[in-house]
Amino acid sequence: MSERITFGDRRGWDVWLKLASIICTVIVVPGAGWAVSVHQQIGELDGRVRLLSAQLDSDRRSASAILDELKSLRSSVDTLRADVLQRITRVETKLEGR
């Protein structure tokens, strides 16, 4: 019932083994080298992305601090402006009284 599939003589096996060896040499080995190379490149890119991400986060925090400082400065300028306008009004009032 169970039949063995054979390649006939020993020469058939030799041909198939040579073919398998060629396939491994031509396709599998370079493919493994390519996979290792791509893995290394991905690792390098991952490192660069992490570095840029950290730098971007730092820049964002710096920009936020600068924006807060500008808002504070704007508030100070508005207060100074109101004070100067009030003083000008007082001076005009004194000049009109003379």
Protein architecture, described:
With 98 residues, this protein is mostly helical. It has one helix and no strands. The chain has one helix at 10-97. The longest helix has 88 residues, at 10-97. The model has no long low-confidence stretch (mean pLDDT 86).
What layout of secondary structure does this protein have?
Blueprint (H helix, E strand, L loop, with lengths): L9 H88 L1
Number of strands: 0
**Biggest sheet details:** none
Q: How many H/I helices? A: 1
Strand-and-helix sequence, N→C?
H
Overall pLDDT level: 86
Rg of Cα set: 40 Å
Task: Name the structural class.
Answer: mainly alpha
Which percent band covers the strand fraction? under 5%
What is the 3D form?
rod-shaped
The separation of the N and C termini measures 131 Å
Helix fraction, binned, reads: over 70%
The low-confidence parts are none
How would you sum up this structure in a few lines?
The chain is mainly alpha-helical.
Brief descriptors of the model:
98 residues; mainly alpha; 1 helix; 90% helix; rod-shaped
